[in-house]
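To illustrate the input format used throughout this study, we show a single complete record. The first block contains the structure-token representation of the backbone; no residue identities are included at this stage. The design step must infer an amino acid for every position from geometry alone.
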């Protein structure tokens, strides 16, 4: 819309789109107000809109990802998670145990996570497990403990929603709602997440292509939630030395296609403590906006994902090394006289 477009002109455009059966969204950016109208050209001729008062330009979005594609936004999306900006120039760190197991375990881990300067604590209260006989999480009790941890350590809470039945409860507690790899194409769950006021962390499915992943993000965006963060967590390959294979190149590939922020989870990508720090470093070097890392105060006693949980001292190493790599990438410039 034109800079000086009135609220009434915006309303008229929305009404025209609405009566043609197009679901439009208003994006009120710092520099301009955009109306995003996926597939509007199927219902209306562009000049029908272009001649309306207040309209500056009708720009066709050629990408199939009408809301996720880079050309649907003026710049990169920055998602604010309780004050932590994901997608901007900083490196966003999210850490914690795989699951909430007890107050003692959660608080002991949260304490050193906070001491390392990390502002977002992640732990599952509802755990999607490969075997039905494995620890399934503490459920609602786990959510309560996460709320206590937020108050005690001033940490934002990241936790997973695994099903529609418990979504509301997870949504109330979470500052960032995780949708797990196995649920990446659970379309009912994605649509519910799209109707949430809370930001969403969308993990990549274990065998999903980048295109399938972006369509999954599109499900969330098309319901009105613009705050989606992608998270690469390793994919299934024939390589059998690790749980999954970290797809490092998907980081720059995704950044070229979408304005959404992208994080890397080196813990589920490897399943092995000794591979987590090198893969975290690789993720940051490839340009990830943040990391999601599992750490446990006593990994040998963990009820899930113990073998990949970093010890407190290793976790501190990871934080320092990854921040250093990130700073180098931000600051490194070609010395004068060496430019071609
Ligand atoms: C987790 O984050 O603990 C988890 C189960 O991850 P993913 O969905 O990536 O397997
Ligand atoms: Mn886990």
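Output of the design step:
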């Amino acid at each position: 819309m034109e800079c000086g477009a009135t609220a009434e002109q915006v309303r008229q455009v929305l009404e025209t789109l609405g009566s043609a059966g197009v679901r439009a969204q208003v994006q009120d950016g710092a520099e301009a107000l955009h109306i995003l109208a996926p597939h509007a050209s199927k219902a209306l001729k562009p000049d029908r809109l272009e001649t309306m008062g207040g309209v500056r330009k009708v720009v066709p979005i050629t990408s199939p990802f009408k809301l996720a594609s880079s050309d649907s936004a003026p710049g990169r999306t920055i998602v604010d998670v309780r004050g932590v900006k994901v997608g901007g120039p900083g490196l966003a760190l999210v850490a914690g145990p795989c699951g909430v197991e007890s107050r003692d375990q959660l608080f002991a881990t949260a304490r050193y996570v906070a001491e390392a300067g990390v502002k977002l604590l992640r732990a599952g209260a509802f755990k999607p497990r490969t075997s039905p006989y494995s620890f399934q999480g503490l459920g609602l009790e786990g959510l309560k403990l996460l709320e206590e941890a937020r108050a005690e350590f001033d940490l934002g809470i990241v936790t997973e929603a695994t099903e529609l039945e418990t979504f509301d409860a997870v949504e109330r507690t979470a500052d960032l709602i995780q949708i797990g790899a196995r649920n990446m194409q659970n379309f009912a769950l994605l649509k519910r997440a799209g109707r949430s006021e809370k930001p969403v962390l969308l993990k990549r499915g274990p065998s999903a292509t980048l295109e399938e992943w972006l369509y999954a993000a599109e499900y969330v965006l098309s319901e009105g939630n613009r705050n989606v963060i992608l998270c690469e967590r390793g994919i299934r390959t024939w390589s059998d030395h690790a749980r999954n294979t970290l797809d490092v190149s998907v980081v720059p590939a995704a950044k070229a296609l979408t304005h959404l922020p992208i994080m890397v989870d080196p813990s589920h990508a490897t399943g092995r403590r000794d591979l987590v720090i090198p893969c975290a470093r690789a993720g940051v070097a490839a340009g990830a906006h943040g990391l999601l890392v599992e750490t446990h105060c006593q990994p040998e006693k963990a009820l899930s994902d113990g073998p990949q949980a970093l010890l407190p001292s290793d976790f501190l190493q990871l934080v320092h090394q990854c921040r250093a790599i990130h700073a180098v990438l931000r600051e490194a410039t070609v010395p004068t006289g060496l430019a071609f």
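Structural context for interpreting the output: The chain has a mean pLDDT of 95. The two ends are 42 Å apart (CA to CA).
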